[in-house]
Amino acid sequence: MKRVLWALAAATTIIAIGGGAVEARTNLNGTYAFTSTRSCTTTNGPDFIPDGSGGFIINDGGFFRQIATDSGTTTYNSDGTGMTTNRSVTMNISAGSGVSIVSISQSSATFTYTIENDNQLVTNFDAGTFETIAGAGTGNIGTFSARPARQAQIGNGANTIVSGPAEDILDETLTFISGPSKGLVQHRVCTRSSISVKQ
User: Fold this and answer.
1) In CATH, what is the architecture of 2-198?
2) Are 55 and 169 in contact (CB under 8 A)?
3) Hey, is 176 helix, strand or coil?
4) Helical residues (DSSP H) of 69-121, grouped into ranges
5) Hey, is 139 helix, strand or coil?
6) Model pTM score
7) At what angle do helices 2-17 and 20-27 cross, to 10 degrees?
C-alpha cells in the first residue's frame, strides 16, 4: 500500500511541474473527497515518551493497536483556511475475546495551510471534535488535540493531493467529555496515508 501511495505521489508530482505553484495556489480552492488509512498505538495511561529519534516509547500502562479507514471531505478556502469532516471505521486489532473490536465515528476540524514552491501542501490542523455513532463506545463525544504540520503533494492541476508517512509520527490526545467513557483521556501515536480528489 505504501509503495502504491508513493508511486501516486511521484506521478502527481511530475504532472504538477508544468503548472507550478502559482497554478496550485489558484486552483486549490474548493472541496476534495478523500480516503485514508491510519495505524495507531493507543494507551489509556500516561502519554508516550519521545525517544529522541522521532519515535516514541510506551510509558507505564497498557496499550492496544488500531487500524482505521477514514473518508470524508476537505474544503480549502482562498485565504489559507479550511475545514475537514470525516467518518472513521476503526478496528482494535489487539482486543481480547468478548470485546467489541469495531467502532464508527464522525469528526470535524478546521485548519490552516500553505503551499510551497514545489507544490508541497503544508497543513496545520486545529483541535477538533468527534462522536462515536456505532459499535464499541457508541455515544462517546469528545475532542482531539491539534496536529502538527502535515505535508502532502499537490498534482494534476490541483485536482489530486497525495500524502504518506513522513519522518514524524503524530502524537495525539483524545479527551472524552460525555458518553460511556466520560472523563477518559487517551494518547495515541499514528501514521497516515491519504489521497484526495477534487469534486
Assistant:
1) Beta Barrel (2.40)
2) yes
3) strand
4) none
5) coil
6) 0.81
7) 110
